[in-house]
Write a sequence for this structure.
C-alpha cells in the first residue's frame, strides 16, 4: 500500500499520505504501481469529460479536460517534455544536451513543443465521439505509464546517478510482469480494444527511447516524462484515425 501511495503522489497531485520525504528504496518499489496510477488518472479524466458533456460542446470539453490533465499530473511530465525538446533540438554535443536537460530554465524549443502538445491534445480529443473519448481517457494514461517501465528497464540511464537508477536498483523482482497484470485492468472497463492501446504504447515507448538513447547515450527522468506526453498525444491521434476509418467504411 505504501508503494502505491508513493507512486500516486509522485505521478499526480493526489496526496493521500502525509509523508513527504521518500528514500530511493521507496521510489524503487513504487514503480510497480505506475499503470495503476495511470488508471486512477484516467478514471478522473473520463468522469470530468462525462460531467462536462451536459454543459459544453466537444471543443470546450477537450480544453478543460486537457487543462485538468496537466494539473492532475502536476506538470511533471510536461516539464520533462519541454526540457527534452530543448536538449534534443539544440544541435549540441551529447554532454551539452544533458546539461540543458538538467537546467530548470525552459528555452524557446521547449515552449514551442509544449504549445503544440497542448493544441494537438485538445484537437484530437475534440474530434472524438463522447463514448470513444471517455474510453480513451481511461485507457491512454494507464497504457502509457506501463510504457514507462520499458523506458526504465530496457534502456541505460544516461547519468551516473538519478531517480532512474533508484527505479532499476530497488524495483521488486519481476516488476514488469507484475505491472503488466495491473496494466491489463482497464480491459474490464474498456473492453478488448484496450489491448491495442497497450501494444501501441509499448511500441511508441520503444521507438522513442531508441531515438533518445542514440542522441543522449541513454535516458533520464526528463525523457521519461517526454515519452509519456508524446505517447499520450500519439495515442489520441490513433484513436481519431481509427474512428474516422470506421465511419468511412460504414
Amino acid at each position: 500500500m505504501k508503494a502505491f501511495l508513493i507512486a500516486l503522489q509522485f505521478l499526480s497531485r493526489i496526496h493521500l499520505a502525509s509523508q513527504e520525504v521518500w528514500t530511493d528504496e521507496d521510489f524503487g518499489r513504487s514503480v510497480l504501481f505506475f499503470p495503476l496510477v495511470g488508471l486512477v488518472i484516467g478514471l478522473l479524466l473520463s468522469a470530468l469529460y462525462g460531467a462536462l458533456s451536459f454543459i459544453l460542446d466537444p471543443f470546450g470539453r477537450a480544453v478543460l479536460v486537457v487543462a485538468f490533465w496537466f494539473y492532475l499530473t502536476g506538470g511533471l511530465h510536461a516539464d520533462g517534455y519541454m526540457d527534452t525538446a530543448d536538449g534534443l533540438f539544440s544541435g549540441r554535443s551529447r554532454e551539452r544536451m544533458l546539461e540543458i536537460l538538467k537546467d530548470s530554465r525552459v528555452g524557446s524549443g521547449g515552449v514551442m513543443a509544449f504549445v503544440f502538445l497542448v493544441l494537438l491534445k485538445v484537437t484530437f480529443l475534440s474530434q472524438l465521439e463522447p463514448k470513444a473519448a471517455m474510453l480513451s481517457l481511461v485507457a491512454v494514461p494507464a497504457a502509457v505509464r506501463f510504457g514507462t517501465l520499458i523506458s526504465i528497464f530496457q534502456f541505460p540511464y544516461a547519468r551516473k546517478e538519478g531517480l532512474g537508477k533508484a527505479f532499476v536498483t530497488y524495483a521488486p523482482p519481476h516488476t514488469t510482469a507484475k505491472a503488466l497484470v495491473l496494466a491489463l485492468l482497464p480491459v474490464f472497463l474498456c473492453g478488448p480494444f484496450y489491448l491495442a492501446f497497450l501494444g501501441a504504447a509499448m511500441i511508441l515507448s520503444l521507438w522513442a527511447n531508441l531515438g533518445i538513447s542514440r542522441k543522449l547515450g541513454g535516458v533520464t527522468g526528463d525523457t521519461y516524462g517526454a515519452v509519456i506526453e508524446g505517447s499520450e498525444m500519439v495515442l489520441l491521434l490513433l484513436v481519431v484515425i481509427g474512428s474516422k476509418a470506421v465511419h468511412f467504411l460504414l
User: Anything to note?
Assistant: Residues 221-249 form the longest helix (29 residues). The radius of gyration is 18 Å.
